[in-house]
Amino acid sequence: MDLGFDLGANVPSGVFTLHAVIAVVFLGLAGLNGANGEAIGLAIYLAMAGMIALVGLLAGRIVARR
Question: Can you tell me where the transmembrane regions are (predicted)?
């Protein structure tokens, strides 16, 4: 599918990097919740960061195969 612009030569790394940056944001939010003593917020943000990083890894692998 033509998107109208070129994503570059190393798209799988870009996909993973984008997801990793977003996961780092959620890790920061988890740190804030942990510092405030909110265990449930800490657990939720850690889970979200892990899932986003995992999706980035899987999406990068899928993009690499195409």
Answer: 7-30, 42-64
pLDDT tens, per residue, the chain with 66 residues:
454 555 556 778 888 888 999 999 999 999 999 999 999 999 999 999 999 999 988 888 888 887
Q: How many domains does the chain have?
A: 1
Residue 29 covered by a domain: yes
Residue 56: name the closest of 32, 34, 31, 26 by CA.
26
Residue 56 lies in a domain: yes
Structural tokens at position 36: 């405030």
Q: Pull the structure tokens for residue 50.
A: 């892990």
